[in-house]
Amino acid sequence: MHGPVTDSRFEIRNSKLLISNLESRIVLCLPTDNSQVIIPTTRFTWKMRSMEKRMGAPKISVCVPNYNFAEFLPRAIDSVLQQTFPDFEFLIIDDCSTDGSAEVIHNYAARDRRIRFIANPENLGMVGNWNLCLAEAKGEYIKYVFADDFLISPEALQKVLALCEGDSSVMLAGSSRNFVDPQGRFTQNVCPFKRDGIFAGKWVINRCLAAQKNLIGEPTAVMFRKKDAAPGFNPKYSQIVDQEMWFRLLERGNFAHAKEPLCAFRLHSGQQSAKNSNHRSAIDEVFWLNTEYLRKDFVKISEFSRRYIVYDNIYRLWKYYRVNHVPRLVAAADIESRYGYRKFRLLYPFYKSYKPFLRLFRKIATRLGA
Question: Three-state DSSP class for 331?
């Protein structure tokens, strides 16, 4: 930020903030004598919760984690400020942007007292910043709106909240979403569940595993209770970190869905998912998630489909090695440790013959809403 800030809504942290998931200690470096005050997280959290109970915590915390999206921030911020539901706090955390994002946020916060702005003193990374939003949020419910996305309807908050509170079994609520181009122009509506309703959480996990897709949506598309999200997003993941969280929530409850699109997801080259998609880590994460969930008792996918999914993961790894010119012996050793190299080579022609038919089947099933 530029210049001194005295408004308590601006939390410009020139002091050092140490965070590990959602558990840490806070170290404050006092500017007068450079001494430090260390506040244990448990005591600090307890005091904050006591204050929130006395003051009345908001129903919803709208969280905007930002890194270098100054170009898109105004539309995201405006879409939140235009909401008709009044009982929310608006938390924006900038992760050391270098593109003027802080100035954009500061200007909005100076005009609207609902905005609470935090500027990180050091870059926490994508998942670290998401988790800081969770830690700082005071509301009962969490609604992310990513800085490059935006809410379509001014009633988005109250409509998703109604889904959360309409049935006590609901752990996660969301809607269909519109994909838009970098200029914010509509390209397509994405609605995998085709209708309004409450769906069994474990059934949704089964569908996602069978399709090998996140059918639930990105964080901008959903809402959940803060208390249910502990211990936060798993820092082991970066590409499908949201899907891993949704699975954890849906193991414990149901998914409420609205067919009406309530948010827009912007597709552009600068988004983190686009940057990560071609990384080795993206392949590893799918492998980890499948390894964890395909063996669970509630997963009803056929044995053939499970074997196909596992082989497909290994094939993606093999393809990555070929595209990136990794030595064959290195690739073979990795595949041997995960699956068995001879087994992989033996099944290769059968996989290549079957895959086109599977793609066709999935395409037909999508059109029919199956």
Answer: helix
